[in-house]
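Support reply, case 0932

Customer input (verbatim):
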Amino acid sequence: MYWFTADEHYFHSNMIKYANRPFLTIEEMNEELIRRHNEVVHKNDIVIHAGDFTWLKDRRVVQEQLISKLKGQHIFLSGSHDRWLSGAKGIWEKIIGGHYVVICHYCMRTWARSHYNSWMLYGHSHNKLPSIGKSHDIGVDGHNFYPYSFDEVVEIMTNKPDNPNLIKRN
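Our regenerated output:
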């Protein structure tokens, strides 16, 4: 099973105020994000984190304080605040269930194979940027602080309009 998420901002205290998160402390936010993640993700599931995972800078500390506590196999994309990552990719692309999926921290107006109705999953905007076509913000702020399952993404995309640059075939 694939899961998608972005903008967790672990250990980023300003995020509580900036994104109007319902937590009193950074510790409460961290614990609740971990709890909700582990409530739905299983050990062998693959989780794509589309940037801004944590404010921490030391990879060893990130591993000990966060990654070791999260279920799943993790793929991390770089975002605006991921100083702990070195050499991480900014874009991830894969065909899943017959759908070409493109994931990036930043929303794009066009993306790989968008003219064939591929899907764009992004973060960064904390659910404040309207999507176009087959794109969707997968940040935790727009999903009650849970990651999105692939099945949820399929349902979301089914109800979205075609991409504006779709090539119509006769």
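We compared this against your earlier run and they match. Two observations from our side: Residues 26-40 form the longest helix (15 residues). Residues 2-158 form a domain with the Purple Acid Phosphatase; chain A, domain 2 fold (CATH 3.60.21.10). Please reopen the case if you see a mismatch on your end.
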